[in-house]
Amino acid sequence: MKTYFECVPCLMRQAVEAPLRFTEDFEIRERIVRRVAAAVSQMDMTRPPPEMGGSINAVMAEELGIADPYLAEKRRFNELAMELLPTLRRRLGESERPFEAALRFAIAGNVIDFGAPGGDVSGELERRFDEALEAPLFCPDGIVDRLQRWVGSASRILYLADNAGEVVVDRLLVEMMPEGSVTVAVRSGPAINDALLEDARYAGLDEVATLVESGAALPGTPMGRTSDEFRALFAGADLIISKGQGNFETLSDEDGPMVFLLMAKCTVVARHLGCEVGQHVIAPGSGFR
Question: What pTM did the predictor assign?
Answer without folding.
Answer: 0.94
